[in-house]
Amino acid sequence: MSAPEDITAPDDASAPAPSRGRRLDIPQGDPLDGAGQPGGARAAREARAHLHIAYGPARMCADPAPHPLPEGPVPREELARLRRLHRAVPEHAAMRDQLRRTHLLALCGEPGTGRAWTGLALLAELAELTGGGVSRLGYAGPDGAPGVEKGVEKTERGHGYLLELPADQAEATAEPLLDRLRAHFAEHEAFCVVLVAGGPAADRLLRGRRHAMAYRPPAAADVLDRHLTELLADRPAGLLETARATARRPELTEALGLDEPRPGEAARLAGQLAAHAEGRLTDERLLEHCRSFAPHQAREWFLEAGHPGTLPAALPALRAAALRIALAVFDGSAHSVMAEAAELLAWELAVTLDPQYAPGRPLFSARPGACLATARAVHGEGVEDLGDASVPVRAVWFEGRRLAPAVLHESWDGHHNLRGPMARWLRALCDDPRPQVWVRAAVAAGVLCARDYLYGLVELALPLARTDSPVQRMAAATALAEASRAPQVRPAVHGLLHAWARGDDERERETAALAHGYGLAAGSVAASLEELGRLARADDGRTTSHSVVRLLAGAEPETVLAALTHWLRDTRRARRDLALLATLRAVTTRTSQLWGLGEVPELEPYAAWPLATALLAARPECGPRLAELLRAALTWARSAGAAEDALVGWIRRAAGDARQLAVLCDFLPRLAQDGDEPLDAGAATRIREVLEAL
Question: The pTM is what?
Answer without folding.
Answer: 0.89
